[in-house]
Write a structure and sequence with these properties.
There is one protein chain. The protein is an alpha+beta fold and about 140 residues long. It is globular, with a radius of gyration of 16 Å. It has one domain. The protein starts with a strand and ends with a helix. Strands 1, 2, 3, 4, 5, 6 and 7 form a seven-stranded mixed β-sheet that branches. The chain is about 20% helix and about 35% strand.
Amino acid sequence: MTVHLVKLCVGVESIQDLVDWQNERLKERKKKKQALELVHVTRMMPKRIDELLDGGSLYWVIKGHIAARHRLIDIRSVIKNGTPHCGIVYDPELIATERRFRSPFQGWRYLDPKDAPPDARNLKGGGDLPEALKIELAELGLL
């Protein structure tokens, strides 16, 4: 059975901030001639790896709401400062989701598929409106 991870996206104000940050990480890796992959390093290793890699995603909480996800590719052991950590490897394609409130927590949590928000529908209109306004209009069903 598939299961997902949910993680707070600390220091990010919007989905575009997350995209920009990840693009910078990929540029840095390319410059260093490293594999062009996105890896989130965290201290704890999940126990349900097989379920996560069976179609699971990493859902990002931005400003108190689950807002986007990445498909999980791999989960591997990594060493950081001489200490074992977990490397969560995810697909570079970011998929916006319908926003759903999520109370604060530390680290990551498992997310049951039935509790995961659906992918956001393509929002038509809104043009160059600020992201926060587009989100609010979409939640009201106006976009």
